[in-house]
Structure formats: C-alpha cells, structure tokens
Amino acid sequence: MEPAKRLFALDSNVLMHDPTALFRFQEHDIFIPMMVLEELDANKKGNSEVARNARQASRFLDDLILKHGAHNISKGLPLDLNPSKDSDIVYGKLFIQTQAFDSELPDYLPSHLPDNTILNTVVALSKTLPETTLTLVSKDINMRIKASVLGIHSEEYFNDKVLEDADLLYTGLHELDDTFWENHSSKMDSWVEEGHTFYKITGPDVKDWTVNSFIYNNNNHKKDSYRVHAIDEDSAIIETTQDYTKPNNAVWGINARNQGQNFALNLLMNPDIDFVSLMGIAGTGKTLLTLAAGLQQTIEKEIYSEIIMTRVTVPVAEDIGFLPGTEEEKMTPWMGALMDNLEVLTKTDGESGSWGRAATNDVISKHIKIRSVNFMRGRTFLNRFIIIDEAQNLTPKQLKTLITRAGPNTKVVCLGNISQIDTPYLTETTSGLTFVVDRFKNWEHSGHITLMRGERSRLADYSSEVL
After folding, report:
1. Helix (H, G, I), strand (E, B), or coil: what is residue 463?
2. How many Å apart are CA 230 and CA 56, to the nearest integer?
C-alpha cells in the first residue's frame, strides 16, 4: 500500500449518507476499513434511504473492483469510474483494508464495537504510515471526539453542504431604497399586457436579481413591490404584483397579512410557476397560504384535479409505535398542521349552519389526498397540486425523488423551517430544502420566499425569537 501524502479513512455513516462520497475527494486517496463493509452489509436491507445508500455504495465499490481488478486492491484502485474527458484531472486511489491489525486501543474502549474497530484500524494505519497525513471522516460527532482523544485527526463530511453558511441562503427578496427608484424612474419603459403592468429597467443592479424574485420599497409613503419577470444581461423586466391584502382578492377566504405573505400568494397563484418553496419560522402562514391557494385552483378554478399532501414521518420525541389502518389513516396523525389549517379554511358563514359546513368538508375531502413519502417512488402525478410539508427533514436525494414524480400540469410546493430539523446527520446547510432552494433559484418556472413575520400569536413570535 503506497498512498499519497493525504489519506482519508471513511466512516460507515459517510457512505450511508452519500454513496458518491467515494468520488468527492478529488486527487486524494481514500481508505475503507473492513468494518465499514460489514456495516454496509448489515444495513443494506429495506426501503429506507440508509438501506438504498448502503446498496449503492456497495455497487460503486464492486464496479471499481471489476474495472481495475481485485489483484490491484492492495496497490489502490483509481477512482475514475466515470472518467472525465479532461485529461488534466488527477484521480485519487481507493484502498480497502486487506490485513488485520493488532489492538491499538486503550483498555477502556471495548474493541468489539464497530466504531471502536474502525478507530483501531485507523490508529494502527497511522502508525504503519507515519509519513502520511491520515484523516478520519465521519458524520458521527462522538466518533470524531474519540478520534481526537486517540490523537487521530478527524473531520466532518463537508461535501454534502449546499452552502457554507445558512445565512447566505437565497431569500427571493431584494429591498431597494428611494435612491434606486429616483435614478431609474425616468429611464423605465412601461406597458400593459393582459391586465398586468410591466417595466423595463436597465443598469448594473439587475445582475444580482433572479427571475421570480421580488423587489420592493418599504418607504413609509410608498410601498411598491414588483416581481422580476425576466432578465437579459444588464436589463430586467418587472411586473406589478397582485395585492392579496385586499378583501376582493381573497384566496379561499384568506388575505395576506403582510408583504411576505402577499409575495408567497403571487407565486402560489401563478400557473406559470411549477415549483414554489416557502421557508419561515412557525406561524408565518406557510401551510395556510398553500392550502388556500391549492383549494382555490383545484375546486374553484379547476386548474388541478386534486391536492396531494405529504411529509416525512420523523417524530419530534419518542416514536409512539405502530399505527393501524390504511396509508391515509396511518398518515393522519402526522398531518396535524393540515387539519388545523383546514378548520380555518372550512369555516362558513352563520347562515349555512351545520349542513353547509358538512357539505364544504365533504367537497374538500374529495379533493385532498394524504400520501406517505415512503410510497412515492415510481409514481407519476398528473394535474396535481403537490404539497411537501416539513421538507427540511428530507435529504437532497429524497426531495429529488419526490419532485421528479411531477407530471404535466403539476405544481410542487415545498414548505419548511431549516431551524427545526429533526433528522440525524442533516443540518441547515445539508438539508434537502436548502438544496432545492439553491438549485431552483435561477429557473424561470420556480420561485422562493423566506417568510420573516409570524402571524400566529404574540406568544409564538416571542418564543421563536428567544427560545
């Protein structure tokens, strides 16, 4: 074994989180302890994301061995499974443990535990290769702590991060001061098309804008807002937004209570926008606005045939165990937010009485279907309004699986709050919600808004700030 000066030993959880991690270390070499292969084998059964990733990691390893030959394992297998046409790229090598090591761990660490077996292999390897900088890569914080205690350099797996800092995440908003409007108002061309007023702005400022983002002026005397319709190099076409704060523009009886909600409804009610992501703290109205827009476009406008609501089933506290019933009945306890918001949306006037409420509930129930994320693979949804709730708990791969289920005339809305992630190994910068917000921000048929102002109650707003 003759690795380069930098060698990365991968923990099992790295490959079970991202199988492509094998190919994300550029020119550096990778070492796989035998216990990692044992853990991949132990976790390969089932339909969970971990099981699928374990199987895919094993397939990658098998493909590399088939391509370069098992007799070259000790020399290192080049990590060029799909080599680039760029001949200047230098690929690292893959090394797999081929020999046993004596115990190098102190007596207080039980050697039979998988994590400790991996640690022992890495410690012994570091002594065998004193000239090589060896790094243990793990997503398990306790594993990294133990490695540090044993004198082994360790790092978290960073290549799955969409951004270095969640504060840099795209918000979909651009606030412009009075100076901007004073400099551009006299130069803007304007016209009316199909009841919408458009303006063309030219200047260096538009290079930082994205299609379907919103620009606004919060001047006390003039609160104008516009949606970016199109961008062409140093010019942009903007259009005035629909004002959903007015009672005559109510969506299923709901009006926007603040500017952020108004922008969200402009995205949700626009049939040309196929993908919408709404992010914000609890009480900002993400679910209520989305359901109202879905009901309006499904039942009244008949743009979509039905609403599909789904979310990942990650409990906040201890799991309560098996839930009886059909798929929809099993999902009902997870859909508390749906039921709470439907109570608001199905309120009828006093003259309708109980019969009116029952009729409204019956109509709505026929147009809303609750589905589990676990059974989405392989399906295609035509003419549907799909709502993915609590999307911050999904991995990028899971969200890709869900969004690619969309057929013709289907709209997908992702809702979530990246400060409330309940899934192990996911953070604000590695969440699937962060991933889709960043990847869709430049597509002309998508839009995103980060809602800042809560409308639930003063208690909820205060607790979001101080707790």
Report:
1. helix
2. 40
> 120: closest CA among 133, 136, 131?
136
State the residue range of the domain holding 340: 250-466
Q: Given the structure tokens 């930098």, which residue do they identify?
A: 6
Residue 30 within any structural domain of the chain? yes
Closest by CA to 65, choosing from 36, 91, 94, 90, is: 94
Residues 320 and 374 in one domain: yes
Q: Contact at 8 Å (CB) between 413 and 374?
A: no
pLDDT digits (tens, 9 = 90+) for 428-438: 888 999 999 99
Considering the domain architecture, whether residues 362 and 422 belong to the same structural domain is answered as yes
Domain count, the chain: 3
Sheet containing strand 368-370, edge to edge, reads: 368-370, 306-311, 384-389, 411-416, 275-280, 446-451
Q: 155, 183, 209: which is the final residue of a domain?
A: 155
Task: Check: CB of residue 263 under 8 Å from CB of residue 241.
Answer: yes
Where helices occur in 178-310 by DSSP H, the ranges are 178-184, 259-268, 286-295
Same domain for 50 and 138, yes or no, is: yes
- Judged by phi (left if over 0) then psi (alpha if -120 to 50, else beta), residue 26 lies in left
Can you tell me the mean pLDDT for 158-171? 73
Q: Which residues of 158-184 are buried (b: 16+ CB within 10 A; e: fewer)?
A: eebbbbeebeebbbbbbebeeebbeeb
Which neighbouring-strand residues pair with 387? Answer: 309, 413
Residue 245 lies in a domain: no
Last residue of a domain, one of 121, 155, 189: 155
Assessment of whether the complete model's pTM goes beyond 0.85: no
